[in-house]
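Q: What structure does this chain adopt?
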Amino acid sequence: AAGPKARRDAAAQLLPVLRGLVSRREPLVVRFDDSEAVLDFVDSEEAAALSQVGPVTPDHMLYTKRVACYVPVDDPGDIQGVIDAVKASVAAYEEAYRAYVEARNHQGLPMLDPAPRVILVPGIGMFTTGKSAREAGIVRDLYTAGIEVIHNATALGQYASLTVDEAFAAEYWPLELYKLSLKPKGGELAGKIGLVTGGARGIGRAIARKLLAEGAHVVVTDRDVAQLEAACKELEQEFPTRVAGVPMDVTRHDDVQRAFREAVLAFGGLDILVSNAGIAPTGAVIDMPLEVWERSFAVNSTGHFLVSQAAVRIMKAQGIGGAIVFNCTKNVVVPGPQFAAYSAA
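A:
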């Protein structure tokens, strides 16, 4: 099996594609798990069959669906091959789910989202989806607990679950559907994922709080690690499970690539980039050192390019759109004295 870094690298490339596939009806958050217990199951010869038997309890099914989406993979190191296999497996899963409902839905009940909630990829790990990071985490915890039950059952004999007809009756039981309807709807940006640069203080911090207040999950980035940690700690108290802090210097290509990789691993993808990081050096042109001028262009111009490039790549992989907001200055059109380096950049 591949090592932890190789698995996370593969997951970082796979997550936006997978999130796009399962978010065509509503935006979902996707979590990745490659813990030892999960890998032992996913990489086992029996996983393809056991993952299709059914849930441990009817209650599990409300979160995990009746079965997981198992992705047959020839070579986990061939990321394009894995992506192609995931696309085919998710499409087949949704088609099978529709057929499962249509064959038994004699009451004409509205069909639940056919997208899988658990996706098993041998050699890489498990992906779980939900309307929030918290819900995706519950799916992960329930399925991981189910793996232990399956392991113990097969050690003693054979694992069995509800029949398909019984499973449908449980999944579409009116009281269970009512229970689902009681879940809070969330704000306008529920299920969306945002990233704010320069988010540790001032305008960036206020933008991050506003996105969170509207229901989004937010990755806050800043080059000041101490300020970033303080900001995230405060925001997490108000918006638990929906904040991630990632140190990032927008002027460094490798640092931007690393930070966006961490952002994808945190929540599964990206819908909103707020390119806000900026500095405001002052001084007359006649006295200004070259390094001050160059630093202003590195942060206030090149930084926007680097983070936009990283964001667009993720958004294209998802295929569900996105938004990029550039925070600029009135100095663009009304330059002030002593702000030549700032205004020009």
